[in-house]
Design a protein that fits this description.
Structural class: alpha+beta
Shape: elongated
Low-confidence stretches: none
Radius of gyration: 19 Å
Mean pLDDT: 96
Oligomer: single chain
Helix content: 10-25%
Number of strands: 10
Number of helices: 4
Largest sheet: 7 strands, mixed
Length: about 190
């Protein structure tokens, strides 16, 4: 039995389309015992995205960015967030979009990017699926200073860290962004062995 056989959508109500889309949905869900149960859920649709971890095997380094994130601040995180470069797809392919984001945010024009996995980051309420990439970088690939696009409110600092320091920053709480933790763990297990 597919999921489509287990759900009957009854009502979808738009709550907001100010920047992204927030909807509330009433549906019936067929439980494992065959009983139909009415449920209500809100879903936030901001589109799908891509994220990337540039790494250098020879230097044993990674490139991350640091920037202000209001939702993290309002949740009690009183610091800039250290993250892997990322962005929404905006109707582009994940590979094309992450190449552009990497150059905008880090200043690196990367040659080969490799998709490593996809993941839903908060599937209980957010529809976004992220495409995760890694790419090897070399110093001559830096074609700009990065920093993001000021007109979009971005003010991004570029960080080049040793993989060991980046992993330690997860342990001591300086890196708390889920996509970044996932990419650093992937790199520790599959790249920097």
């Amino acid at each position: 039995m597919s999921i489509a056989d287990r759900i009957r959508v009854k009502d979808v109500h738009l709550l907001s389309d100010n920047h992204y889309t927030l909807k509330t949905t009433t549906f019936e869900w067929r439980r494992a015992n065959g009983e139909w149960q009415t449920q209500h859920r809100e879903s936030y649709d901001r589109g799908n995205g891509a994220t990337l971890l540039p790494y250098s095997l020879t230097q044993r380094t990674v490139v991350l960015v640091r920037q202000f994130r209001y939702p993290a601040y309002v949740s009690g995180y009183d610091d800039l967030l250290i993250e892997a470069a990322a962005g929404l797809l905006d109707n582009a392919s994940p590979e094309a979009r992450i190449r552009a984001e990497a150059e905008e945010e880090t200043g690196y024009r990367l040659r080969e990017v490799h998709r490593v996995f996809e993941a839903f980051m908060s599937p209980g309420s957010v529809t976004e699926k992220l495409h995760f990439f890694v790419a090897e970088y070399e110093p001559e690939m830096r074609v700009g200073s990065g920093g993001g696009i000021a007109d979009e409110g971005e003010e991004i600092e570029v960080l080049e860290l040793s993989i060991d320091e980046a992993l330690a920053m997860i342990g001591d709480g300086r890196i708390v962004d889920a996509k970044t933790i996932m990419l650093l763990q992937y790199a520790a297990l599959n790249i920097f062995r």
